[in-house]
Design brief:
Blueprint lengths: L4 H15 L5 H15 L7 H4 L23 H11 L15
Amino acid sequence: MIISESDAVWAADEFINYFSHMGNIEDYLRHVKKEVLSSQSILDPLHGEFFNEDMHPQDMEFKIVRVGKGGLDQKVYDRLLSVVSSHNNEKNIPGRELK
């Protein structure tokens, strides 16, 4: 597919405008993470459980749950993971099911 020069210039300007306020890749990753967190409300009822700063790790109770067929829905898992992980979880890369 060949695009016109005006469409190419428009697309380039969009990229430049989007990234112009970001100084480096870390700024971009923080920006994306903030967007993900602001768009997610799945943890609202669990906020105290996930973000209790007074709880020591030794007092935490962990449960291993199957994800996918016969377990937790993959979409629910992806949403939970995107909120609690410290990095961005891309969904369109190879190995995304091996989290």
